[in-house]
Amino acid sequence: MQAGANVFSSNLGQTRPEIGKQRIAARVPSDMAFPLWVKRLREDKSAEQRAKAARELQELNNPSVLPDLAEAYFAEQHEPARQVIEGVIRMMYLNLRYWELDRTGEIDAEVRRRLEARGKAIAPQLRSTTTAAAVDAKRSTQESSAEELAKILRDAEINRAKRQQKRR
For the whole model, what pTM was predicted? Predict the structure, then answer.
């Protein structure tokens, strides 16, 4: 390598992660509040702006906004915006589930089970760079499941029906 060429490298040194050798770390859910984006999601007159608010909420990655997103999904009349909101709900839920499985070690157990079934050698360190101890030390979150998501969607459907009855 020429002098100065390392300036443009990623500073990971000689032990860079190899593609396919290490899992992608799950995104740790945020616990920050973002009332501005939730307000825009609910009240903005432009469907494009509501979709943008949903995408921003996805980037901020706080699972506590899932009920707001579910309500927005059922209330949305503009189909492209509704599809964006649906995609955001899916991605946030799946990311949360992936993070929980990573945190509890269930993903590692499944990878080991599949490798053993194939008769392959088991790597000593399968876990992603996010360790359970570090994440738990930072903050703990409530367990999430498909049942919780179904409850969120049911509640949003009930709220939508109530709003429609008030309009009549």
Answer: 0.60
